[in-house]
Amino acid sequence: METLSPALLTMKGIDKSFHGTHALNAVDFDLRSGEVHVLLGENGAGKSTLVKILAGIYQPDLGEVLLRGESVHIGSPAEAQKHGIQMIHQELNLVEDLSVAENLFIGWKLLSRGGLIRWRELRKKAGELLDSIEADIDPRAVVGTLSIAHRQMVEIARSLVHEPDILILDEPTATLTPTEAGRLFALMERLRSHGVGLVFISHRLEEIFRIGDRVTVLRDGEWIGTKEIGNTSSAELVQMMVGRQVDQVFPKRESAPGETVLKVESLSMGRNSEPVSFALRKGEILGIGGLVGSGRSRLMRAILGLDGVQGHFDSVRSALRNKVTYAPEDRKRDGLILNFEIAKNVSLSSLSEAFSGGIHRRVNETRMAEDAIEKLNIVCPGPNGIVDELSGGNQQKVILGRLLAARPDVLLLDEPTRGIDVGAKFEIYRIMSALADKGAGIIFVSSELPELLGMSDRILVMHRGQLAGALSREEANDERVMQYATGA
Ligand SMILES: Nc1ncnc2c1ncn2[C@@H]1O[C@H](COP(=O)(O)OP(=O)(O)OP(=O)(O)O)[C@@H](O)[C@H]1O
Ligand SMILES: [Mg+2]
Question: What's the 91 CA to ligand 1 centre distance in angstroms?
Fold first, then answer.
């Protein structure tokens, strides 16, 4: 006879408000041992808030959390850990100045015995852990020197140190290459087969169908429905998420690139790379493809004269003076001033307007922010909302808003749709197209092949720090891009 065991986790009637924002409204959620339960919803729907409650980071205003049928209070991340709950955060949470091994075992007794750090054992354990997730990372490397993808793998490894019963993954794949994402899925399957319950957040529907068992959709903080993955479709899920039908097609453009707006000549990206030359024309969207770590971001940064290379410009400021704007990959590190209002962040690249005649024009600042909020559908309390309090995807949109406010001739966008929900993604594609139609030149880095192929007039593919090939829109397809990207 089958015995009915209680769910591993039940969350009942969870309610949470942040001064004015009703982030969660009586949400129910449950998780079984050995399943992957996906949380899906638009930017700002409440996904991160719900899992942060489970991870002890936020306290719910109302509602109850039960573990194996027992009501529990999860007052802090440390308590969550005691209950066997671990979370991999949407925003990376590593100490950049410490080594990988130290980051993995921070606060762990292995670190010291009688005050002495047992380095050899620490490194050995770290190596084993990294091997177990097939991450090719040196435990001695300083985290700050690693690529974002590698940091993400460290973050994943760290969550496994405590052998959790419940593992929460908040958009873990956004920064990974397809290969790394494949490894992560294999790992998730292994954990699932050992009875771990996994909560998985992703905006990529194909991943959800690949790895998920059930999916719960949130919209504006409300529970919309829970489905078995086998009994639903991406059309249904999108409909549940946005409450309307969205057409998922790349905007059609008549591309007729004009004169050259940016000419990159013999740009050096470091000692071991051949210098790079190419031109960007008015109205052109130039995609940069390649695997994570292939030098795509470095190319963008080199154009701006960052990282100490002799660039096309000598600084972001001089680029800006030439109406060239840049949205970096890591919004937390070099994109946003998190404790400032949206208005200040949006106007940051348009200070001449915000401070015209030496006077701080708050009106202009507010107008620019309102414009961005409307155009990009930023979920927020208004221009004075603090960026730190926005959901991850909405923070990303603030950076794009800043770029638009500067009315640039050239946009350099590094992974512009990372962490952006499906509906908003197509909004951003439409905005990119509209800007190009008006004569702006756009260079964008993307790890998503459909986006790269759907949006680019021309694609440059990087491989191991070198420009491996260029493809016109007509020539480009999945295989060709991957051939160049892998050096095959
Ligand atoms: N600490 C906070 N202070 C104020 N408001 C917050 C805070 N954290 C979240 N919110 C608000 O709660 C709502 C839900 O945010 P949440 O981060 O849960 O969204 P999400 O579904 O994870 O979105 P995304 O896909 O963009 O990551 C948003 O409107 C957000 O601005
Ligand atoms: Mg989130």
Answer: 13
Tokens of 137: 């990372």
Looking at the structure, do residues 74 and 196 belong to the same domain, yes or no?
yes
Cα–Cα distances in Å, from 46 out to 15, 392, 394, 413?
A: 10, 11, 12, 27
Residue nearest to atom 6 of ligand 1 (CA): 389
Look at residue 1 and give its three-state secondary structure. coil
Asked if 21 contacts 8 with a C-beta cutoff of 8 angstroms, the reply is no
Which of 19, 42, 49, 241 for mutating ligand 1's site (highest number of atoms within 8 Å of CB)? 49
pLDDT digit string (tens) for 202-251? 988 889 999 999 999 999 899 999 999 999 998 899 889 887 666 667 88
Give the structural domain span for 350: 335-406
Ligand 1: list residues with CB < 6 Å.
18, 21, 23, 41, 43-49, 90, 379, 389-394, 421
What's the rounded Cα separation, in Å, for the pair 117 and 208?
41
Compute the distance from residue 421 Cα to the ligand 2 centre, in Å: 10
Q: State how far the alpha carbon of 250 is from the alpha carbons of 427, 452, 476, in Å.
A: 10, 10, 15
CATH number of the domain encompassing residue 115: 3.40.50.300
- Please write the tens of the pLDDT for every residue from 267-314: 877 777 788 889 999 999 999 998 877 889 888 888 887 765 666 676
Task: Give the other-Cβ count within 10 Å of 120's Cβ.
Answer: 8
Q: Determine the distance separating the centroid of ligand 1 and the alpha carbon of 347, expressed in angstroms.
A: 22
pTM of the model: 0.78
CA of 195 to the centre of ligand 1 (A): 30
Q: Are residues 308 and 342 in the same domain?
A: no
Q: Which three-class secondary structure state does DSSP give residue 237?
A: helix
Domain membership flag for residue 2: no
The amino acid present at 451, given as its one-letter code, is E
Q: Which helix (H) or strand (E) holds 279?
A: strand 276-281
Query: Which atom number of ligand 1 is nearest to the Cα of residue 47?
Result: 21
